[in-house]
Automatic annotation (TrEMBL):
UniProt keyword Zinc, yes or no: yes
Protein name stated in the entry: carbonic anhydrase
Segments of skewed composition (Basic and acidic residues): 1-10, 271-297
Domain Alpha-carbonic anhydrase: 9-264
PANTHER family named in the record: CARBONIC ANHYDRASE, CARBONIC ANHYDRASE 7
Keywords: Glycoprotein, Metal-binding, Zinc
Organism: Anopheles stephensi (Indo-Pakistan malaria mosquito)
Family: Belongs to the alpha-carbonic anhydrase family.
Enzyme class: lyase
Annotated EC: 4.2.1.1
Keyword Glycoprotein in annotation: yes
UniProt-recorded Gene Ontology molecular function terms: carbonate dehydratase activity; zinc ion binding
Region (Disordered): 1-24, 271-318
PROSITE patterns the UniProt entry points to: ALPHA_CA_2 (PS51144)
Amino acid sequence: MINEKQKHSDLLVPSTTGPSHWGEQYNTCTGKHQSPININSLDVKKVNLPPLVFQGFDVAPRETNLTNNGHTVVVTMESEVTPTVSGGPLSGVYEYSQLHFHWGDNDTFGSEDMIDNHRFPMELHIVFYKQDYKNARTALNYPDGLTVLAFFYEIAPEDNPMYQEFIELLGNVTGSHLSARFDAPPSLKDLIAEDLLHYYTYDGSLTTPPCSEVVTWIDFKEPILLSHAQVQAFRALENEEGHPLTHNFRPVQPLGDRVVLYNTDEIIKQVDLDEEHPPEQPEGVDTNKIDTPKSDEAISSPKDPNSRKHPRNTASSPFTSQWTVLGASLVFTWIVFCCSDRYC
Ligand SMILES: [Zn+2]
């Protein structure tokens, strides 16, 4: 019986022609908000988003299977507690669907998103669908249908012990469409980085056909460390033609009008400083218009990247403005009152 999680792995099956031909069969692959992208770290908007909330990440699944589907390695889990993620740039709760990897022929490239034109040797994608949409396939019909937690890998001198059984099992799924089962299934927390505060986020797409623009990407800054030999184990897998399964990443796509956000704790100090010591404004600039939310909708819509402001920014600015207006009104009233009584 095919369950929803297995069906979702079909989403990762690319057409037989290369990425440059995907648009011939799938209009969405030529969209304006495609993934992956190159993230220019000097051209991101720093924000303090609400904390991401991870549930069930530290629970070892009852059963975990690893499958070579001819295009990547997919990991599916059966668990008492389905891991979920919420908070951060997300509205609503997102449920775990599957995880898979992208890698290259050697250690100099392999990741899909790039940071400052740098490719990492491998990238992990943990795919979640919005709980409201019941399953990953239905979620593809909604712009906020999926979120992918992405982690980059870097090469370290030592093996990563948390990946030991994972790497051993790769030897059992060398051929396309082979599966293997973990003896001691790792929890999601075992497989990811520790720092979950610093991340880039932007609205993008699936990186394989149908390239649906339904993904909130969350790319964590801290890489996961694996040894060269551990990454090399992925390169020993074979595709459906029996050739080495490598280079399963899509070229970067134009950023277009999108804004990449970078979640950091630095801005808290910056906001406090700014409130106490507002910077001098050049002549002709109306300070009341800076950082003042345009409408309630702009504050509450997390899909609008320009609206993803720290709550303190959105909450404090109108508050400050109201008191400024009230103060100015009192002074104006006093002046009118005084002048009308000829006290001036
Ligand atoms: Zn992927």
